[in-house]
Design brief:
13% of the residues lie in helices and 42% in strands. By secondary structure, it is mainly beta. The longest helix has 12 residues.
């Protein structure tokens, strides 16, 4: 499980049909094979690593549902330890789909980002609810049938890849697990 609080970013060094290699941050000193790391929000397993690199297997299903095939700079978060502080929201690392950036509006100290909203994900989005974008835990500022908006604070702009997005860029989306479970329960009991 993850929280959506990004630890750092890393450069994608290599992509093959079966995996990706990213630069290894200095703060990942306790890295081990088999460790779960959210890469742009997608839970992947470390299969090999060196002092400078981390390698992850990626199956075709994951490539087809995420932006990992085209990403150049990725957000990283290690799985939350059982005794860790919970600061974001519950993030599984299971990407529900992708979305394109439609607009980027500067606001006071931060930025408002507008993304397309796929109709399959609309039932899981509610104003002031949670969403995970490229692994970042965010609050939904606005939700309409075909788009949603989030507002970034300066820290998020500086410390994640969201501050570097441009019009049309593709991001990974994970809807809130509680919204998905509530929708499923309601669908089965209606």
């Amino acid at each position: 499980m993850f929280t959506g609080i990004i630890e750092t970013t890393a450069t994608v060094l290599k992509k093959t049909d079966s995996g990706i290699t990213v630069s290894r941050p200095h703060l990942f000193g306790d890295l081990h094979t088999g460790q779960s790391i959210a890469i742009n929000g997608a839970c992947l397993t470390v299969v090999r690593f060196s002092e400078k690199e981390m390698e992850f297997d990626v199956v075709p299903e994951t490539f087809s549902r995420t932006n990992l095939g085209s990403a150049k700079l990725v957000n990283l978060e290690r799985a939350m330890p059982a005794n860790g502080r919970f600061e974001g929201h519950i993030v599984q690392g299971h990407i529900d789909g992708t979305a394109h950036l439609l607009d980027d509006i500067s606001e006071d100290l931060g930025k408002r980002l507008r993304f397309q909203l796929l109709k399959d994900l609309f039932p899981f989005f509610a104003k002031k609810g949670s969403v995970c974008i490229n692994g970042v835990s965010l609050t939904l500022a606005s939700v309409e049938r075909d788009f949603f908006e989030v507002v970034l604070i300066p820290h998020t702009i500086q410390e994640t890849n969201l501050g570097k997005l441009h019009y049309g860029d593709l991001v990974n989306i994970e809807a809130d697990i509680f919204a998905k479970l509530l929708f499923q329960w309601h669908s089965e009991h209606s």
